Amino acid sequence: MQTWLSDRFDTARTRWAQFQDSRRGQRLLTGVRWLFMAGIIAYLAYQFTDIGWGRVWRALPTTPWFYVLLLLMYVNLPIAEVAIYGRAWNATARGLLPVLLRKRVLNNDVLGYSGEAYFSLWAQRNTNLGYREAFKTVKDNTIISSVASTSVAFLLLAVFFLSGQVKLLARYFPDETSTVAAGIAVLICIVAVGVTFRRAIFSLSSSLLLWIGGAHLMRFLINTGLQVTQWAVVIPEVSVGSWVTLLALHIVVNRIPFVPTRNLVFMGAGLELAGALQIPEAALGSMLLAQTLLDRVLNFLTYVGTSALDAATVDDREELDALSLPDEGA
After folding, report:
1. Is residue 323 part of a domain?
2. How many Cα atoms within 13 Å fall on the side-chain side of residue 304?
């Protein structure tokens, strides 16, 4: 079963790589990305014009804590993955941190999961691990990360279901109880399938998978706490329940696969929901706009800086020539 799944993954990856490398595929993917981004930007421009650009400008965050918390959230994922891949491959932080920062940039600014493909290719070229061996760890880590984030999302759903905030979603889900029940059932099914077919789906040992799951769960909890704190210090008059609801929307948007510029999508959805959550639209819009623009600046500086660092450093390759893959199914 595991061999069959691996062959399917390899076949799908090969076909996708051939499509991406073809002239038609490159043109189509580029056109779709630009069309999607243009639509989101046009919608945001309409929303900000409706709010008033002057109000948005005057409501820009002035507290330094906004920027401190932004930096902490920016490095949260790369640092967590340094610990994860360092434990899985016995690798050093010095060798992993630059490429994992670039992986974050690609996932956020190019296309969802493009960072994972880049990281797998990087591991093949710059370590003693082959693509297939590196891909196994990347695949398992990605699946566990998705399960952990989904668990946090359902936890938040349960919190604002109990607090009554879920009524805001009534126009999308007419029956609240059935919605939560369906969500819990889906989560149970995912866990059951994962446990039953663990050896067919995952390649890493059970103990390492549990450790990775715990690391991702801790990372998500820290990140959600930092995010709510950042919003609260900028607009303190808004209730915690409203921020938790907005946070749930943020998590859902971030879990949509293969979507470029998720932060722009979240900005549009957040502004649409601001009135129902009793959040000042101008303050929310300026805060999310500042966060998006600063994230882009950080992405540019990070990608250029880490690429230059890798080019100027000659010892990193030697540090990554003795990596080891953990035993499967241990």
Report:
1. no
2. 6
Tens of pLDDT along 212-226?
Answer: 999 999 999 899 899
DSSP notation for 284-305: HHHHHHHHHHHHHHHHHHHHHH
What DSSP string runs through 187-248? HHHHHHHHHHTHHHH--S-HHHHHHHHHHHHHHHHHHHHHHHHHHHHHSTTS-HHHHHHHHH
62-100 residue pLDDT tens: 889 999 999 999 999 999 999 999 998 888 888 899 999
**Residue 173 belongs to a domain:** yes
- Res 123 pLDDT > 70: yes
Residue 328: inside a domain, yes or no?
A: no
Amino acid at 61: P
What is the pLDDT at residue 174?
44
Residue 324, in any domain of the structure: no
Range of the domain at 140: 2-318
What b-and-e string marks burial along 260-277, b requiring 16 or more CB atoms within 10 Å of the CB? bbbbbbbbbebbebbeeb
DSSP 176: H
Number of domains in the chain: 1
Helix (H, G, I), strand (E, B) or coil at 52: coil
230 neighbors 76 (Cβ within 8 angstroms): no
